[in-house]
Amino acid sequence: MTIIRQKLSRPAPQEDGAVRAWRQALPRALLEAVGLDVVVTAATVEPVGPADLPALVPDHALILSLHDEGGARGAILLSAELTACIVGMQMTGRIPTDTAARRPTRIDATLCSGAMDAALEALGAGVTADADRWAAGFRSDTFLPDVEALILALSADDLRVMHSKVVLAGAASGGRAASLWLILPARAAMPEAQAEDTAFRADLAEQVLGSETLLHAVLCQFTAPLSAVMQLRVGETIPLPRASLEEVRLETAAGQGVGQGRLGQNRGMRALRLMTEERPRSAEVVPLRGVA
Does pLDDT of 26 surpass 90? Predict the structure, then answer.
């Protein structure tokens, strides 16, 4: 049997579903977000613990903290080369020729977080199997200055790190290499019944929270005898006790208070600036003028 036949007879290695999704998500996000064209040449997933992190973080790496809606914490690390290219594309529109390693700053983190969030969103949309959902649902939230801050930010003891090697494409890049590390908690796959229930709850919450509700801005509240109200005429003046533009109450259609604010204007329209949480306010009895 020839060498070619031997290779064809061997089963193809099965790549992790999250790795496959990341191979597609990362280059597309970098190209669309900042115009940086890269090719992922290698991507591997390995288990790590907090004690392994100091050896994992390279010099001058940009560290972004990640979180998901459930409160799980993760991080993403960009090599100095990749950080310089993302920042350079946004500042000058081209890959910098001088990418000497330097200590990353919060400005670097701000410029890189948009592209990373786009990549993480595409990664979450690309994983379909429940076993790969450990990589879904994360987004960046803050800049971490060093490995000590990284260790404090990661609460899980069991972590997975996806190490990606990329090559900058295009004639101007010179084929330079860079790296990226995605560190996430190694969450176990949920049972199918639990996964279906979670998906149903998420869909229901999305529908409910996306629905519209009617709100009323109430300047003041008072009560008056019905006989006095029936005798009101056009042009009469009704005194408003404790009426203040600083204490406008925001209510639902059912009268439930949801906030309190200050009445003002925005671009020529009446506007309400929320200032504090809603405070209970009792209605006062007001004698109406002109009523015996």
Answer: yes
Q: Which of 11-15, 26-30, 46-50, 259-263 has the highest mean pLDDT?
A: 26-30
Residues 6+ apart with CB under 8 A from 263: 217, 219, 245, 248, 270, 271, 272
Class of domain 16-190: alpha beta
- Token pair in block for residue 48: 């790590």
Residue 107 CA to its chain's centroid (Å): 18
Using CA atoms, how far apart are residues 145 and 161, in angstroms rounded to an integer?
A: 19
Cα(213)–Cα(195) distance, rounded to whole angstroms? 30
Per-residue model confidence (pLDDT) at position 289: 56
Give this prediction's pTM.
Answer: 0.59
Phi/psi of residue 163, nearest 5 degrees: -95, 120
Reduced to 3 states, what is the DSSP secondary structure of residue 69?
coil
How do 38-48 and 159-168 pair as beta strands?
antiparallel
Instruction: Report which DSSP code applies to 158.
Output: S
Q: Residue 22 belongs to what H/E stretch?
A: helix 17-34
For residue 151, give Cα distances in angstroms to 77, 83, 125, 144. 13, 21, 28, 10
CA dist., res. 133 & res. 183, Å (int): 14
215-285 to CATH, choices 1.10.1670.40, 3.40.1350.10, 2.30.330.10, 1.10.1040.10: 2.30.330.10
> DSSP string covering 209-275, please?
HTS---EEEES--EE--HHHHHT--TT-----TT--TT-EEEEETTS-EEEEEEEEEETTEEEEEEE
d(CA 62, CA 81): 10
For range 15-42, the mean pLDDT:
89
- Cα–chain-centroid distance for residue 224? 50
